Amino acid sequence: MKAVEKRAVYLKVRDQLADKIHSGIWLANDKLPAERQLSEQFDITRVTVRQALVQLEAEGLIFRANRRGWFVAPKRIDYDPSRDIGFVRYVEDQGFHARTETLSKQLVEAPQWLSQLTGLAEGTPVYEILRRRYINDRPCLVEKIFVNPKHCAGLLSHSLNQSLWELLRQHYQLEPAERYIEMYPQTLDAAIAQQLNVNTGCASLYMRRICHDQQGEFLELDEEFWLHNALKVVVSVKPPKP
Amino acid sequence: MKAVEKRAVYLKVRDQLADKIHSGIWLANDKLPAERQLSEQFDITRVTVRQALVQLEAEGLIFRANRRGWFVAPKRIDYDPSRDIGFVRYVEDQGFHARTETLSKQLVEAPQWLSQLTGLAEGTPVYEILRRRYINDRPCLVEKIFVNPKHCAGLLSHSLNQSLWELLRQHYQLEPAERYIEMYPQTLDAAIAQQLNVNTGCASLYMRRICHDQQGEFLELDEEFWLHNALKVVVSVKPPKP
DNA sequence: AAGTGGTCTAGACCACGTG
DNA sequence: ACGTGGTCTAGACCACTTT
After folding, report:
1. Cβ neighbours of residue A128 under 8 Å, at least 6 residues apart?
2. Which residue among A17, A22, B4, B141 has its CA within the 20 to 30 Å range from the CA of A180?
3. C1' of D7 to CA of A228 (Å)
């Protein structure tokens, strides 16, 4: 066992910056000093500064907005993918401001992978909705939704900047039964990264939700691409009775 | 709109390496060429090579073993945190080899944060178990478990290299009722990184599970530190009847 | 001892965002 | 126009693992 742990320069810098955040000297959404400024301050190269910053980013303590700078990350929001009370309300219950923006909506033919997952016949028309969601005016996720139009004709004529499930419930009396959820850490491809105003290859949490109704018919599939440091997933489950 | 998307050198290198993996030229657990060798091959600096490698690591396509090299990552395993059929069996059902190793087990006083989460009186004795789990001989997670000894006296005298829940069920007739699960992307601290033979600050998925029995009494809390590219979380939930 | 990744220096130019 | 991060070069030394 070593008496003294050797800690790389970039980790020491990380520690000092982390301190400023934890001690409240820098608050959520504050801009950090420029990289060049930090490199002078600590008398190290910009490369090393960036190593420290990237580390803090991976931890979720800071985030960057493409070419605008580094900022102190706000607290993660709790997110329960098994609930459907509406994103905006859910987030605002936690004291944040939330907003949804519809990027596109159209009727498309179900792609092959979707058919395989849901049992829909290939080529069946489905609604495809693309939305971007903000927390405190920071774009935090993009979601792509496929809805089975069978029981909700005319869905796209409604505003989709609100809770989709509230809409499905109130206008179409649809109710989700079982949800199959999948998620794993990933990175953002160029297209989605751009929509979130971050770098290609940025760390993310990918989440997919497939939802059927009580009769076992496919209702909705939802793919969410989250900034990895924006959320904490919480879910409460009871084991199936054997 | 640009006709041609400009792609950085390191992303082009990433693409070429990713191709070798996707096309099956390199197989799971194969070692990649040394960084210096790659930098010669592509006629770029080692820095740029590393940028490509780090990118692939973030995507989960490759992993590194501290100072030993870069390797093609095997497929993620599916992991359902709501089930308790036993890690080893669960993983082997998917065609992998799994192994569990107990790093330590002891009776400790419940730390404050544990009491706050579970409602246990502070200082109550609880079993603390530290385990490391392997998939195909690659250490993939470390878990720290706290068990309420109230209904399972003598637990630590058993071998803990097996399914804990099988043990609790068979020897103590304990059955989990509701589970509260939390998870989010994080990084590994120095201690855990070392136990997984990876670098400090390595990307991970943190998962915490709190489990009570039918009477609402605290049974077990489990903290898992996963290599971020080792798993895909899958969970199936039914919404509570309102 | 040799080879590997891990860290770090001291620069440079570019692309984009903001005033 | 200027400041910012994004990318890249061409080296160097260190710490650890493997042979």
Report:
1. A104, A105, A106, A107, A108, A144, A145, A146
2. B141
3. 23
What pLDDT sits at residue A19? 96
Average pLDDT over residues A43-54: 96
- The pLDDT tens digits for A88-117 are 999 999 999 999 999 999 999 999 999 999
Q: Measured in angstroms, what separates residue A34's CA from nucleotide D3's C1'? A: 9
B177 touches chain A (CB under 8 A): yes
Nearest to B44 by CA among B14, B20, B65, B19: B14
Strand partners, B143: B131, B224
Domains defined along chain A, listed by start: 9-72 (1.10.10.10), 77-233 (3.40.1410.10)
* Residue B119 contacts residue B141 (beta carbons within 8 Å): no
CA angle B26, B30, B34 (to 5 degrees): 95
Instruction: Give how far B47 is from chain A: nearest CA, Å.
Output: 10
pLDDT at A60: 96
Q: What is the pLDDT of residues A165-197, one digit of tens each?
A: 999 999 999 988 889 999 999 999 999 999 999
Determine whether the distance from the CB of B7 to the nearest atom of strand C is below 7 Å.
Answer: no
Whether the CB of A182 is below 8 Å from some CB of chain B: the reply is yes
pLDDT single digits (tens) B36-82: 999 999 999 999 999 999 999 999 999 998 889 999 999 999 999 98
